Amino acid sequence: MPNDAKMLRRSALAAALLLPSMSSAGATTSLEKAKESGTVVVGISNEKPYGYVEPDGTVTGVIVEVLRAALEPIKIKKIEANVSQFSALIPGVTAHRFDVIGAGMYITPKRCQAIAFSIPITRVANVLAAKAGNPHKIHSLEDIAKSSSVKVGTQVGTAQVDDLHRAGIPEDHIVLFNRDTEAIAGLKADRVDAIYYPALEVSDLIKKFGAGDVERVAPYTIAKDNNGNPMLNYQAFGFNKDDADLVTAVNDGIKQLRTSGRLFKILEPYGFTEQDLPDPSVTAAQICSGS
């Protein structure tokens, strides 16, 4: 009996050690779950034109519609939304609260440390907006950095914040808002003298909330990187690093959309131009490496 007891304990221990590896080997990936259910859950910050929920519950927006089209070849037709603050999207996808970030997020080396990105969907520049008449005569981030009083607003957790720091704008001259709509309201209420957002987003904000009161700064000098090149930002889908098969599937879909010309047809109604299409040779890996 003592020997039998020892053998039983050894067998139980061996089974316990084996279970984690068996469970891991048999784990269902996010892509497999999405294929089985026909549904993918997208993390958005409910901001137009990227990803938002209509009053009737429809999930849409330019980035969401690109995702919808990219998933067609693998028969995933339903998109559900998980709405979060923009700054909570990366923690959300790393915690598997949703499958993909569909908020028009820029690829940056810092973000690449936490999540995986698809190939670029668009290439855009950030610009400034000011009150009508541009009373402070701001035409670049450098103008703000040189001023002793001008304050600029942008959104917490975005790549724009890095641009402002890189331009040498003092911390106490930067005001961070949770949403773009709060930023334009802050501009109109004189909490800031300018706001700094992607060009398309600025145009949409002015159209909806600032017509006659706010204008896009022109002429405007696009901020430059450390090598003196204009800083152009590449928007893409973001994923949990464990979901390489889902990244590959979405990339394959984007490539088909590019080849067919359908990608631009999806982008154009939202205000994008052909100049906003990224060079197909530019990869997420290159941007992640800072090259």
Polypeptide structure, described:
It is a single chain. The protein has helices at residues 2-25, 30-37, 62-71, 89-94, 109-112, 141-146, 159-166, 180-188, 199-210, 244-260, 262-267, 284-288, and strands at residues 39-44, 52-53, 59-60, 78-83, 100-101, 116-117, 122-124, 126-131, 152-155, 174-177, 194-198, 214-216, 233-235, 238-239. Strand 2 (52-53) and strand 3 (59-60) form a beta hairpin. A 5-stranded mixed β-sheet has the order 10-9-11-8-12, sandwiched between helices. A 3-stranded parallel β-sheet has the order 4-1-5. It is globular, with a radius of gyration of 23 Å. It has 291 residues and is an alpha/beta fold. The protein folds into 2 domains: 30-122 and 234-288, D-Maltodextrin-Binding Protein, domain 2 (3-Layer(aba) Sandwich), CATH 3.40.190; 126-216, 3-Layer(aba) Sandwich (D-Maltodextrin-Binding Protein, domain 2).
